[in-house]
Amino acid sequence: MPLFKILIVAFILTNIGFAQENYYEKTIQQFEAQDKKEFPAQDSVLFVGSSSIRLWKSLSNDFPEIKTINRGFGGSQTSDVLHFVDRIVTLYKPKAIVFYCGENDIAGKKDISAPVEDFEKFISHVRKKLPQTTVYYVSMKPSPSRWHMWEKMAEANRQIEKFCKQNSMVDKRKTLDYIDVSATMIRDGKPDKSIFIQDMLHMNAEGYARWTKIIRKKLIDDKFLTEDKESKEDK
């Protein structure tokens, strides 16, 4: 192959790699710009991951007793959260992390092992930087638009749940747990369409209400939240 063609091919490949590496760079820079205006309080609970986190507009109202940080960015895969971990996770020094990501990995035709292994790397990194922080993995959700992928997602969920159980404790303290939201989203063996918006992928307010109930219980059990008597009586 002539030298000039080799150089052109190399240039194209280099720029493709650069574009992929920096696909979410502008979004991350927007987070950093927000931080410069008002840096989030330490000891907050950080919610990080893909669009199901990004679109959680009622997050602060759903958990009014604690300070929350939303660092969801749409379309992200587990590898993307891992890539930006020090810029959108560890710098905040949160007391707990609620992690939702993985279904875009499967939708992007990655092998089931990809989100599992990348989440394991995420945990390894976070534990080095934040050994006292507890991480909760929220299971990949079943949705009507991706129901044909559910078998693979469910298997990835099972593998991640197993990893969480086997690696939950550090110095006799639980710092890793798995939260299953799939059961509350399925009715009669299929995803409950009533909790999704028109695209049948993302959730409406009722969908987030179901997530809130499950995640809230976990945070209360682990003493990150204190359930007040009025809310308990309402239930």
From TrEMBL:
<protein>
    <recommendedName>
        <fullName>SGNH hydrolase-type esterase domain-containing protein</fullName>
    </recommendedName>
</protein>
<dbReference type="Pfam" id="PF13472">
    <property type="entry name" value="Lipase_GDSL_2"/>
</dbReference>
<feature type="domain" description="SGNH hydrolase-type esterase">
    <location>
        <begin position="58"/>
        <end position="210"/>
    </location>
</feature>
<dbReference type="GO" id="GO:0004622">
    <property type="term" value="F:phosphatidylcholine lysophospholipase activity"/>
</dbReference>
<dbReference type="InterPro" id="IPR013830">
    <property type="entry name" value="SGNH_hydro"/>
</dbReference>
<dbReference type="InterPro" id="IPR051532">
    <property type="entry name" value="Ester_Hydrolysis_Enzymes"/>
</dbReference>
<dbReference type="InterPro" id="IPR036514">
    <property type="entry name" value="SGNH_hydro_sf"/>
</dbReference>
